[in-house]
């Protein structure tokens, strides 16, 4: 893993957006793997601003998202479909029909997981996958468990993840308890991975991801196996990392 340390969240967002924009410029028809949550918001703001200024073109880009809540449709304001439309898709010139997420309305979990796995393969894989990092080391909704799951799957969210996500809902009772998510095998198939991390509350998780044992109890630790991972972390998130990383 290669580490870039940013001054703060704003600087982290800009540095991460620079990496994504470079991918788009070098390969205008890139397949971008995208993430949701609070961490990428500043990245999406920066990308949208560069598009508005005429510095970026999304006209040939295809996107695939990591995950979606089970039970929520694309028009639900709490769905990740809605999140992506609001924070990025409606602000740039992505082609209609070239942005993909799991279908949270599909009650046939096994069929939906297989469909989304095959979709990603049909696109030729992901050129650059953006990831955030959970407090417990999760990536996507791959929660700490006894074994890594390879492909897209349905997961029961932990109480800690539900608690972390309840700020997007009126109450914790409204947070869905299950989600579709890319498995770690699908994530590792991406040609490049960009891990964006911000805040002191992520410092321990980032240390374990970069220097702890590779184990499913810290799902993000599996990124140590990938040959091209770039970590962009602000100073607070990088506080536990040894000097040789810097």
Summarize the structure in words.
The strands form two sheets. A seven-stranded parallel beta sheet has the order 1-10-9-6-2-3-5, covered by helices on one side. Strands 4-8-7 form a three-stranded antiparallel beta sheet, with helices on one face. The protein has one domain (2-180, 208-215): Rossmann fold (3-Layer(aba) Sandwich), CATH 3.40.50. The radius of gyration is 17 Å and the shape is globular. Helix 1 (9-26) crosses helix 2. With 246 residues, it is α/β, with parallel strands linked by helices. It is 30% helix and 17% strand. It contains seven helices and ten strands. The chain has helices spanning 9-26, 41-52, 80-87, 109-122, 159-165, 184-188, 203-211, and strands spanning 2-6, 31-34, 62-65, 67-69, 99-100, 128-131, 153-156, 178-181, 192-197, 229-234. Strand 2 (31-34), helix 2 and strand 3 (62-65) form a beta-alpha-beta unit. The N and C termini lie close together (12 Å).
């Amino acid at each position: 893993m290669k580490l870039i340390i940013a001054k703060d969240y704003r600087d982290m967002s800009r540095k991460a957006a620079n990496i994504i924009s470079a991918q788009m410029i070098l390969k205008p028809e890139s397949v971008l793997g995208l993430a949701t949550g609070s961490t990428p918001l500043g990245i999406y703001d920066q990308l949208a601003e560069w598009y508005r200024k005429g510095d970026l073109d999304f006209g040939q880009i295809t996107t695939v998202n990591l995950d979606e809540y089970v039970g929520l449709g694309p028009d639900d304001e709490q769905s990740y479909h809605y999140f992506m439309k609001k924070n990025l898709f409606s602000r740039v010139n992505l082609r209609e029909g070239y942005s993909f997420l799991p279908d949270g309305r599909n009650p046939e979990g096994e069929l939906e997981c297989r469909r989304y796995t095959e979709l990603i393969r049909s696109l030729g894989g992901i050129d650059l996958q953006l990831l955030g990092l959970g407090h417990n080391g999760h990536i996507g909704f791959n929660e700490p468990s006894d074994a890594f799951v390879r492909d897209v799957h349905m997961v029961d969210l932990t109480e800690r993840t539900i608690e972390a996500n309840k700020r997007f809902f009126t109450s914790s009772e409204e947070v869905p308890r299950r989600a579709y998510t890319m498995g770690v095998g699908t994530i590792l198939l991406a040609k490049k991975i960009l891990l964006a991390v911000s805040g002191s509350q992520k410092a321990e998780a980032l240390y374990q991801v970069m220097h702890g044992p590779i184990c499913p109890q810290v799902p993000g630790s599996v990124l140590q196996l990938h040959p091209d991972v770039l970590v962009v972390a602000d100073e607070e998130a990088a506080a536990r990392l040894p000097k040789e990383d810097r």
